[in-house]
């Protein structure tokens, strides 16, 4: 049987775990099913960072031909794409290669327009930025998406989930199951499952009223509910709700709600080009001064100071968030 050639094109930000999860699934498949054969190709999209962890592979030499599948890997969004590499990727896709983006590897695909009109699983950390920069892509919060001839995984263990789905489609569910057993994977997750950690795990509590209350807060960021309204929705008294929050989160509901909105605002400040007043209003603050004062009290800097400081310290944020006027 002719070996299927699968390429991994990675950027310097790629963590060893991201590449290892994808590679190990394919290597174990060959181990448990000898008739399954792969030729794995590892290519560096850019020169490695001096002194950094050296992943296996060789420098990209200007060609990408011959791969049946090609995965792009990065764990931070690459700031730019070399013109020669962009041309080679487009030619590879036109030749019928199945392409995928793992973790921040979705960014180069989106920059080239290769995800326009496709579903793409985007890590929750980059959802706002990605949606603003690439409005033609259907960004999802799924673990992974396989939409026609495009594959994307949000990162972390979802990379393994996607590769198990590849094995199941190429060679049958029995092989994918055998690989998952060999890797001691508890269960094979479906791509459409949501990527965020279950709320009760994040809160460290299984109290149903607390979970309901926080879900209500997360669903009502732009127009915050009052503590009385939240208590009414979850069918407890205001005093009882405050006792639950104090017991499990060591803060009253209004304080937790404010922190939730401020953290959402900070994420938007760093990942979008929306104005400070737009972000404040979308996170439930009635005016610019109100937003700025609450933000400074919590983070120790005004929204403008915080955004400017992050821009100056991060090449990615500097290139992706235009300077704000006024």
From TrEMBL:
Stated name of the protein: GlxA family transcriptional regulator
Q: What are the recorded Gene Ontology BP terms?
A: positive regulation of metabolic process
Q: Where is this region: Disordered?
A: 303-326
Q: Does the keyword Transcription apply?
A: yes
Keyword vocabulary terms for this entry: Activator, DNA-binding, Transcription, Transcription regulation
* Translocase is among the record's keywords: no
Every copy of the HTH araC/xylS-type domain together lies at 211-309
Q: Which Gene Ontology MF annotations are present?
A: DNA-binding transcription factor activity; sequence-specific DNA binding
> What Pfam families is this protein classified in?
HTH_18
Q: Which organism is it from?
A: Pseudomonas baltica
